[in-house]
## 1
Amino acid sequence: MTTYKIDLKDEILRINFGEPAQNDQIVRDAAARLEEMVESGELTGGQLLKINGPVSVPVAFVLAHKLAHIYGAIACFDPKLGKYVISITHDPAYKLGDLID
C-alpha cells in the first residue's frame, strides 16, 4: 500500500491520499511514484499538465519540483472556481494565474 496515489488519466494527473501517514513518508512515496511514472514512460512531459486532487504543502513542493522540469506549464484545479489555475509556467502560451477548463 502507498500513502499517496498518483495516476495519469485523460491527460490529468489525479492525486489523492492513500494509507494514513505523516508527511515525511508521504513525500517519499509521492516522489517514488513520480519517478516510477517517468521511468516507465507514463509521464513523458509536454506543454501542459493539469493536476486534480488533494495535496499537502510538502507534497505540493515535491510535485512542483519534479514536474516543472518536464512540463511547460502546470495547472492545479481550484474547486471554488471550477477551473484549473496556471501555477507554474515556462511556456509563453500560458500566463501565471490564467484560468483554463
## 2
Amino acid sequence: MASTIGDIIANAIRDADRSYFFEDYSKQASAVLKVLERRGYVVVPKDPTKPMLKAARDSLVYGVNKSSDIVTPIYKAMIEAAPPIED
C-alpha cells in the first residue's frame, strides 16, 4: 500500500494508463484525483476563495473553547466550499 502522497499519485498514474505511446494525460490526471479523493484528500486553491471564507465564517460556533471544536468545522466548511476541479 502506498504510504506517501507521492506514492499514491505515482501508483494512480501507473494504473491509469499502461500504453507506451500516446499516453492519455487527462486520463492519468483524472485517475490521480479520484484516488486522492478515495484516500481522503482534496485539491484546493492555495489561497481561499471568497465562498470558502464565507463558509468558514458561517460555520463558526460561539461558546466553544476547545481549539479542535473551532477549527475542524471551519476547515471542513472551507473544503466543501472549494471550487470544483475541472477535468
